[in-house]
Amino acid sequence: MEETTRKARAVTGNARPRRRVTPDVEPFDTPGASLCGITQKTAHTIIRHIKATETPARRRTKQNIRRVKAAVERQNGEAPTEDEIWRALKSRDIARNVRNFLWKGIHSGHKIGNYFTGMPAPWCEYAICPMCNTTEDLQHILFDCTSNEATNVWNLASDFMANRTDQWPPLDVGSVLGGPLLQFSNDGGQQRGLTRVMRIVITESAFLIWKIRCERRIEHEDDADAAPSVEEITGRWYAMINSRVAHDRHLTNKRRYRRKALDENLVLDTWDGLLELPENVPANWIRHPGVLVGRGTTRPRGRER
């Protein structure tokens, strides 16, 4: 015991003396943030940043980030950074429920495929697509499945955009998850309206496929007789597009949204050449209700309102 005490005193004696801070310097030498001057927003941002740096990256998230980078680089010619991918999920061009779908997709947070693999029967059966007899993942659901929704929705999207783009781009799950970053042009220069409408059509179409798939597998329990027909899928797709057109019209209201209102010229450029305008409607159709894409004019179902 005496030996331990002697060693401790020796170490203490050799330690560097503590730096003295005079009273006139102390207010400027305090480590950390001053509580009297910090705001709740700043404190919350700092806490989230600290937690984010301490949280290790998820393996599946890294894989999906690589897919997004490859898809965006294929379309734009330049790969985005990881920070740009996460910031793009806050884009106002994409509806909030679609942004949530994309965020969960990047994190592989959807309960599909391997999520059910280790579960007992009958839950393990949900891992397999009954139509294709293969393990489900987001790539399979959105593009590879032989179901009506996966086949017809993308045909509707490409036909809808035929008047605005020379060629429908090759898509995969990375293109959907990175949809808010995709850029499009017909003449070599980026066109803001074309880019915006393509982002909307691609992400909304993918989200519609996801919703129809969930209804087919969960609500109707893979009942073939309850599967949606081509006509129903077509009507729901046009109803979804018409809903986005109406949403854009409402967001241009400067009296209600003030500085956050959408630019009318941007909305007009977004849907240019894609709407059926009656003869008595002027070129600026934003203040004229009843402007529709052309089909699916009936009232949409509850989830698409």
From TrEMBL:
The lineage of its organism: Eukaryota, Fungi, Dikarya, Basidiomycota, Agaricomycotina. It comes from the Eukaryota. It comes from Exidia glandulosa HHB12029. This is Reverse transcriptase zinc-binding domain-containing protein.
